[in-house]
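[Q] Does anyone have a clean structure-token version of this?
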Amino acid sequence: MRSWHGLGDVPAGWGRSVVTIGVFDGVHRGHRLMAERAVAMAREMGVPSVAVTFDPHPGEVVRPGTHPPRLTSPRHRIELLAALGVDEVCVLPFTLEFSQMTPDEFVQTVLVDRLHAAGVVVGENFRFGHQAAGDVETLHTLGDKYDFVAEAVPLVSNGEAISSSLVRERLVVGDVAGAADALGRSHRVEGVVVRGYQRGRQLGFPTANVESPQFTAIPADGVYAGWLQCVPVGNIPAPYAGERWPAAISVGTNPTFEGVPRTVEAHAINRDDLDLYGAHVAVDFDARLRDNLKFDSIEALVAQIHRDVSEVGRLTS
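[A] Here you go.
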């Protein structure tokens, strides 16, 4: 599976294809239905399937300062779409100029002239074009004009409407299990391990202090059970390749030590030998253990961390 960054990366002579379009933030269970339908339609037509997504999030461009937290990095989004069987992923740079295309201009420029769409699969709430003027009915009309089949997929799984907004709502209250149910997998926060105050190491529980990109969707403050692993970025290999460690994860300001900025820190259980500084890591959140607490003493804090680590071991075994 290849990924294209902009329409200029689409190979010359590219033939007809089935295209599914969306921001695909989170690649949740609703998005999975879209991708699976696009792949099935492509097989029926004997052509490849293409997922079209956007970076940055359209909200960052058309409503600066009001866009939602991002559930997945572009790199992870491509990986997740590929895992669903999509042949190609086309990441379109979303610019102010791009946002001003009419629905007809978008269809002709992206779907017809470059991707030669024979079929187009979208979510039933799909909107496109300047000021979201186009909807599914518009897409059907333009399909008749430009000779492609348009199909809208209900984003419903087990009777529940699934959306990126739903996932964010669950994360903001720390319901990572509920978020995972909507996503179909654990919510992930990625970033580079940076040096912190090293208090965890001093207490006997070294942590990876994860500096995530701006606008990342981070669960509510608290302590969680999950997993930590290094992931490759571009041509940079990941240290400890193939390893994944159960982890106790702390999100917040660490109230026992006042004045600490909000952080995401992950302690890999039974691994105090890891050197992760500078590595790009992924932290997967499985379950919420408790709120952040302010302890009266270091001894009380350490005793609670022992209990947290024991619970993480039980949940991840």
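[Q] Thanks! Anything notable?
[A] The chain has two domains: 2-161, 188-316.
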